Amino acid sequence: MIHSLFLINSSGDIFLEKHWKSVVSRSVCDYFFEAQERATEAENVPPVIPTPHHYLLSVYRHKIFFVAVIQTEVPPLFVIEFLHRVVDTFQDYFGVCSEPVIKDNVVVVYEVLEEMLDNGFPLATESNILKELIKPPTILRTVVNTITGSTNVGDQLPTGQLSVVPWRRTGVKYTNNEAYFDVVEEIDAIIDKSGSTVTAEIQGVIDACVKLTGMPDLTLSFMNPRLLDDVSFHPCVRFKRWESERILSFIPPDGSFRLLSYHVSAQNLVAIPVYVKHSISFRDSSSLGRFEITVGPKQTMGKTIEGVIVTSQMPKGVLNMSLTPSQGTHTFDPVTKMLSWDVGKINPQKLPSLKGTMSLQVGASKPDENPTINLQFKIQQLAISGLKVNRLDMYGEKYKPFKGIKYMTKAGKFQVRT
Amino acid sequence: MTDSKYFTTTKKGEIFELKAELNSDKKEKKKEAVKKVIASMTVGKDVSALFPDVVNCMQTDNLELKKLVYLYLMNYAKSQPDMAIMAVNTFVKDCEDPNPLIRALAVRTMGCIRVDKITEYLCEPLRKCLKDEDPYVRKTAAVCVAKLHDINAQLVEDQGFLDTLKDLISDSNPMVVANAVAALSEIAESHPSSNLLDLNPQSINKLLTALNECTEWGQIFILDCLANYMPKDDREAQSICERVTPRLSHANSAVVLSAVKVLMKFMEMLSKDLDYYGTLLKKLAPPLVTLLSAEPELQYVALRNINLIVQKRPEILKHEMKVFFVKYNDPIYVKLEKLDIMIRLASQANIAQVLAELKEYATEVDVDFVRKAVRAIGRCAIKVEQSAERCVSTLLDLIQTKVNYVVQEAIVVIKDIFRKYPNKYESVIATLCENLDSLDEPEARAAMIWIVGEYAERIDNADELLESFLEGFHDESTQVQLQLLTAIVKLFLKKPTETQELVQQVLSLATQDSDNPDLRDRGYIYWRLLSTDPVAAKEVVLAEKPLISEETDLIEPTLLDELICYIGTLASVYHKPPSAFVEGGRGVVHKSLPPRTASSESTESPETAPAGAPSGDQPDVIPAQGDLLGDLLNLDLGPPVSAPPLAASSVQMGAVDLLGGGLDSLIGDSNFGAPPAAVTTAAAPARLGAPVSSGLSDLFDLTSGVGTLSGSYVAPKTVWLPAIKAKGLEISGTFTRQVGSISMDLQLTNKALQVMTDFAIQFNRNSFGLAPAAPLQVHAPLSPNQTVELSLPLNTVGSVMKMEPLNNLQVAVKNNIDVFYFSTLYPLHVLFVEDGKMDRQMFLATWKDIPNENEAQFQIRDCPLNTEAASNKLQSSNIFTVAKRSVEGQDMLYQSLKLTNGIWVLAELRIQPGNPSLTLSLKCRAPEVSQHVYQAYETILKN
Question: Which of A7, B450, B529, B639 could form a disulfide with B537 if both were Cys (CB 3.0 to 4.6 A apart)?
Answer without folding.
Answer: B529
